[in-house]
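Case study 2.
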Amino acid sequence: MSSGVAHSVLAASALNEAAAPVRVTGLGFVTPIGHTVRPFDDALFYARSAVRAQALGIPGLDPVELAVAHCDFDSASVRSGSRLPLDRGTAMALSAARDAAAEAGLRTGSVDPARLGIFWGSGLAGAGAFDDTTRALYGEQRRMRPTTVLTVMPNAAVAELALQFGAQGAAIAYACACASSAVAIGEAMRAIRGGWIDVAIVGGHEAMLTPGVMASWHAMRVTAPAPAGAPDSACRPFSHDRAGFALGEGAAALVLESQAHARARGANEAMPLFLAGYATNCDATHITNPDPAGQVRAMRAALRDAGIGPLQIGHINAHGTATTAGDAAEAASIHEVFGNAVPVSATKAIHGHVLGGGGAIELVAALRTLARGMLPPTANLRVPDAAFDLDFVRGDAREAANLRYVLSNSFAFGGTNAVLIAARDHGR
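Prediction:
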């Protein structure tokens, strides 16, 4: 074999290795629409919104009611390996990751700890603990806890997860606003493909339903008002009368593995789900206004990474924040890549905008779409914006028995774009 041919063969082999799919062997989540599959699916496929009205009353400011999606979750009951007090978001992260590991069947000794990594995203980790601390310090003149820094630091959840699972591989926190957890998941996929680790516990969380943070988002004028008598209709992605998003909270975790590792330890093969593609980039044009061109580049790069064409995607889980500028930019970018040939849904209408944790929760929704062979409707989308030439799923869920690839978008303040492609039976 000539050196040129040998080089081509090696290059092709390296390319195939880099594009290899990664198994999803476990899911766990704490969301406003449920902590287990049955209630999550019921809300997802029947467009049942968890958005409710919550009063925001801060001394010196006018009272206001905001639309939010709250989790029914007792964070005080969660205990950690560090034995430190936990921020609500970190408690959610631990709960979701424990459920994902249990579903994946990860047990002590089944994974080389040096080959196990933690990749986690959150836009404002420790928000609740920080809000509580500042209120105690400045409002009540109480002393600071000596554990405050450890509770609010951006990698608090990563550290607790590493302790929980004895992970000695890479343990990295990602903070890219609303793309944080999608970036964390994609980078973990790259680490597994690259052979740096065999298994990763990945995902993200956010718990920002605290007075200071809610007031900050309200001040930006991007949050939806809570309609009197029908707060669950507040968030209306892609609608002609969209008025902003409803803040949510929650966490979602996935166990990712190389296919070889999953098979070697006997992971469940009943419903093989994979991550097939990922891309991230930056618009580098504006701190808040999204640029369709950057989103187009990201979606096309993710398709190349998965080795598929646009029309092999059977469903798009849109970022769909229900903001005027955000939905317009995303509708334009989706149309540029896919035309109106691929059905589009947006799930923030039912679980709220979970910000840095949203990409992980929405990937769970995409994986449930694959597993069920059904496309979820976009809640509250009665009259789409006439400027958007897309095939929106609305009203009832659609059957999609032969669904094989789904794409999930996460687009963030700061211009970070992250696109994940999930698959059923990819590469088999």
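The two ends are 30 Å apart (CA to CA).
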